[in-house]
Amino acid sequence: MADVKLVDVKKVYPYVERKAKSKKEAQEIEKKKTNLQITEEGVVAVQKFNLEIKDGEFVVLVGPSGCGKSTTLRMIAGLETITEGELFIGGQLVNSVEPKDRNIAMVFQSYALYPHMTVYKNMAYSLKIRKASFRNEKDPEKLRLYDVAVAALGKVASAQSYISSDKIEIKDCQKIIKKAKGNAEIIARATSRIESSKEDLAKQIALLEASKAEAKAANGIYVEYCKKVVLDAQTALDNKRASGATEEALKPLEDALCEAKAPAVVTRHLTKEEIDKKVKEAAKILDISDYLGRLPKNLSGGQRQRVAIGRAIVRNPKVLLMDEPLSNLDAKLRNQMRAELIKLREKINATFVYVTHDQIEAMTLGDRIVVMKDGFIQQIGTPQEVFDHPKNLFVSEFIGTPQMNYFDAKLIHSKGKYFVNYGTLEVELSPDKQERLAALKVAEQDVTLGVRPDHLTIAKAPLVKKGEAAEDEKGCKESKGFIVGKVEVSELMGTSYHLHLVVAGRDVIAIVPNAGGSANYVGKQLDFIFDGCCAHVFSKETGKNLEFAD
Amino acid sequence: MTKVNLRISFEMDKSAKVKHIISKILAYTFLILMAALCLFFFYILIVNSTKDKSELIGAYTPTFGTSFFKNFWNALTSPGNSYLDIPLGLLNSFIVASLTAVVTTYFSALTAYAVHAYDFKGKTFVATFVLAIMMIPSQVTSLGFIRIAYELQLTNYLFMLILPTIAAPSVYFYMLQYLKATLPLDLVEASRMDGSSEFMTFNRIVLPIMKPALAVQAIFSFVQSWNNYYMPSLLLKDSSKHTLPIMLGLLRSQQESQADAGQVWMVILISILPVVLVYLVLSKSIIKGVTSGSVKG
Amino acid sequence: MAISEMVLKNNELFARAPRKHKGVSYGKWGLIFIIPFILAYAIFTLIPQVVTIGYSFIEYYEEGLTVVGPNFAGFDNYVALFTPNANGYIEILRFFGNTMILWLIGAIPQFAVALFLSVLFTSTRLRLKFTGLFKTIFYLPNVIMASAFALLIYQVFSDVGPINAMITSSGGTAFKFLDQEVTVRSLIALMNYLMWFGNTTLVLMAGIQGIDESVFESARIDGANAWQVFKDMTMPLLKPIFIYCLITSLIGGLQMFDVPQILTDGHGTPDFSSTTMVMYLNMKIGGHNYGLAGAVSVLLFFITGVLSVSVFRLTGDRNKQGRGQ
Fold first, then answer.
1. pLDDT at position C43, please?
2. Which of A208, B239, B288, B295 qualifies as a FRET site for C313, CA 20 to 30 Å off?
3. C3 in any annotated domain
4. Which of C7, C10, C18 is nearest residue A85 as measured by Cβ atoms?
5. Confidence at B112, pLDDT banded by 50, 70, 90
């Protein structure tokens, strides 16, 4: 397991202005247009992404197509270069580290299984071509000194990366100054950036020297220790031999000598048996042990997906990346695999980063979810948080099925309390909402009122049995303080009804419990109310949830 | 491409049916005649190579003779043509053709993979340039090539015929089309995640997937190299390096003073037989290769 | 202001510009992998091409035992190329004409028959059997060594060959096939035809099979007979591929060497009527007249270069057309 940290990660693709040479091309260009921001550097696919993923956490990046979630995942994987910002895996800066050295594994949307290899070979491939590190636990002190030396080397590498990063920054700023053509403001800003980079550069160089010295010292200590251990064992052996001991008696001392000579960490290829063991273990976890001899083309979609996951986990990666793994499966299989993924999480120790466009997957699988749109993070939070307290209109409409209902309402502040006014209906907001709004000194304004379908309740219960006179119709005509809507469609969902209403020209969905009996709501005018804790007020201009600051 | 075979069955009355049968008969007749034309000369070839030279003078009999092995043996040891070492020619041709097949297919696949899977500076330039020059024949540069080889004293080396085939634009193009249709790039990414180096990925993942294309192009380039006459005749002057086509040219030159006609027929047969046999065994894949390569885009 | 932009504004309040690090890039491997191709091309094609062009501007030939040159000669070689020779005709034009005629005599039946066969084989109405066998037989001559084929034809049609044997034994006088311009050219055309009509048939077949079947079906329902279907449906839709085949055949025709060379032992008998461009080039190289050889090569280069570019344009258009459909 390892934690993953993204600091100000940004991805920019160079933008090439394509002049349409024919009407057909113009249509094609129009089709591919996105809402991504275009700066002078290019198209910004991912904007300043900041996220800290804890060890063992399951984080889901969710959003519509083109929002940048896959790009972010691929940056974590190392398949896309990070234009700006830093990525840390297990505390180590990995921007320039190749994917294979990041201790990660990835499950691709299309599974990307090697078509000419059997399932077994697909899973064994990565084990076969890599070397693995084996730690010699028999001498803890040696191991400890080894780790210290490696850590010191890590500091050296880190200082070197920062030095080159500073140099890149300085070069870029110099380019900007050249291109600025005398624009004083730009030149001033660029110069100040150069100054701060030079400062940092000096610091980093000093750090580099110090780290180099430290590394050298640590390495020296390690080497000395190794030599000492070997020497001790050798002398012990020689002494024993000199004292005329038998071969049998000498044996343990000879073994001790061999052990003493062994390095703290051995990096070598895995043996066939070791590979076999790992593959069979992973196959067992994923229930694919019966297919090990088959080729991918002879497997069903679901089986292929398991093999793809198997290939990823066989290496015990610290971080497991999944790029929309369930989107190619049919609905039933998808539900099945969701449950399997939850079970998988218990069986293997890894940090999961999962990308999907399906908010149901996000809500059920994630410890935390990151909602993205057009390259920007919209909200980060647990599924419950994001569901209960969406930070803006987009998040509120993206999360939750069926979608939240929206009304044009007014936020009123009277007698020191906040109310939501919609038509004749006036609802006092719950205490925690009052607090938040008051803290931000939110003024009275027109708002978009959001209420989830589950939170709309029928004011009167017009359980009309077929044939009976509709008592509610009379009642509705004189109702005040309700949302009034006519039921167009009623969907029976087992324990509840999904009622599709039209309220003031807008489509609204309300979920009402099935209280038994065959209630027929279609065509009826019903009154709805909602509680003050379930009303979300969004700014009409910005779409932001007024309860929260940025 | 699926052929939706909508069989529109309409009620054929008698005259239409007769017309249908007549057109079928005509079609088959034409096909048989054409096939006969194709095979006619080879029939003569096979028949005549079984005849002793004495039988070849005078009236022509389309029946097989009995001197097949005598002619065969003579052709190989060529007592009449003391300077035509047919087995050596076979060997030289075989070396050049098989090495060409290997070299051309491997490097064309490698180059096509580079263009398909990577983005690098000048890629579009390289790709378009290769397409544009694809059809320019090698004869236009033959003068320069031969002169350079002569000045550097590199004539009479078989590898001088093999090395240039590293750059074979038409084979490269075929491989590129094949890759575009069969290699999704996330396969390459998956193997990067697995820890494979780029070269390892090409050799262990991409090449196995390209086997059908490699096979087809290996056959084509083998045949083309085996049959090649112009360049080898200019380059290989030393008779110990002659390939079969060169020997056939020499055979033609000394026809007037020819001693053993039966041998000549046999030499022709020996020259074309290997490729014909390979062709007959692999005809299905060869024909598939021709049609798949021609449907571009 | 949109939500996204507001979020951006707030994030920009960070004190420092974020760091930029060098990422992982694989592009360089693409360059590495194409190096063998580029090197081989440069060494074995590009440089020789330059040298060839260079030779065309140089006077360098042998007169008897003396070697004249290499001297710079400007455009002299080109002028000499287009100067009539001792017999009063301009060799290069004559041989170019020969090449074109030889190609044409073979190409006309080749394309006519290939077109006919491709329609025959893909006809759902006729549904012929044994098409696989016929295809195999028709394509067979393509893999035959052209020089062997030519030697074979020489043997068959020689004065003492089987054909003449059959003629004499049935009472006629031996006909010198290899001395008459018409017959020599016809034999060359016959060989070219046999070697290539199978290939053209297969390519055209692939083209026809690429046409949506329902086009033919609806034409038949509309009442078109076989000829009308061919004229109005098959031919227009097949045109791009047909033209592509035509041009590639022409480029191949320009390179014609093996067949006429072996058949006539390089002499193009009678009277150089079957000497092709490449045979001429071969003569010049073999005769150590490198200046003229260079000029001929450059000429060939231009002609095939223009044709090659037109093929390139054609395949590009076909790609776009395919997607549009």
1. 93
2. B288
3. no
4. C18
5. very high
B184–A112 C-beta distance less than 8 A: yes
Q: A325 or C269, which is more confident?
A: A325
Flag whether C279 is in a domain: yes
Query: Do C70 and C126 have their domain in common?
Result: no
Specify the 3-state DSSP secondary structure of A243: coil
- Tell me, yes or no, whether C180 and C208 share the same domain: yes
What is the distance between the alpha carbons of residues A88 and B280, in angstroms, rounded to a whole number? Answer: 61
Q: Please answer whether residues C58 and B142 qualify as being in contact, where contact means their C-beta atoms are separated by less than 8 angstroms.
A: no
User: Which residue among B121, B146, B287 places its CB closest to the CB of C139?
Assistant: B287
Q: Are residues C138 and C167 in the same domain?
A: yes
The tokens for A334 are 């998808």
Please give the C-alpha separations between residue A264 and each of A228, A319, A493, in angstroms, as whole numbers: 14, 25, 62
Q: Do C278 and B143 touch (CB under 8 A)?
A: no
B75-292: CATH topology: MetI-like fold (1.10.3720)
Q: Do A114 and B195 touch (CB under 8 A)?
A: no
Contacts of B200 in chain A (CB under 8 A): 129
Asked if the Cβ–Cβ distance from B187 to A112 is below 8 Å, we say yes
* Residue of B23, B110, B141, B278 for testing the chain C interface, max C β-carbons within 10 Å: B141
Phi and psi at residue C274, to the nearest 5°: -120, 20
Q: Are residues C313 and C233 in the same domain?
A: no
Chain centroid offset of residue A123 CA: 25
Q: Are both C79 and C227 inside the same structural domain?
A: no
A176 compared with C102, residue with greater pLDDT: C102
| B67 pLDDT higher than 80 | no
What's the whole-number average pLDDT of chain C?
85
Who wins on pLDDT, C321 or A109? A109
> Above 50 in pLDDT, residue A98?
yes
C24 found inside a domain: no
Chain centroid, CA B212 distance in Å? 16
Q: Give the tokens for residue C63.
A: 């007169």
- Chains linked to B by 3 or more Cβ pairs within 8 Å: A, C
pLDDT band at B159 (very low <50, low <70, confident <90, very high): very high
Q: Hey, of B193, B198, B205, B206, which one would you mutate to test binding to chain A, going by the most A CBs within 10 A of its CB?
A: B193
User: What is the domain range of residue C66?
Assistant: 49-83+288-317
Residue of A nearest to C21 (CA): A165
For residue C11, tell me if it sits in a domain. Answer: no
Beta strands in chain C, from DSSP E residues, in sequence order = 58-63, 66-72
Mean pLDDT value of segment B225-250:
91
pTM: 0.84
- Which residues 186-215 in chain B show a CB within 8 A of chain A? 186-187, 189-196, 200, 205, 208-209, 211
Residues C233 and C299 in one domain: no
Q: What is the mean pLDDT of chain A?
A: 86
Which residues of C are less than 8 Å from A162 in CB distance?
Answer: 19
- Inter-chain touch B195–A130, beta carbons under 8 Å: yes
β-strand pairing of A425-428 with A417-422: antiparallel
Q: How many interchain CB pairs under 8 A, A with B?
A: 53
Q: Is the pLDDT confidence value at A37 over 80?
A: yes
Tell me, yes or no, whether C110 and C237 share the same domain. yes
Q: What is the total count of domains within chain C?
A: 2
Q: How far is CA C41 from the centre of its chain?
A: 20
Chain B, chain C: beta-carbon pairs less than 8 Å apart: 316
Give me the CATH number covering residue C131. 1.10.3720.10
Claim to verify: residue C176 and residue C65 sit in the same structural domain: no
d(CA B262, CA B56): 7
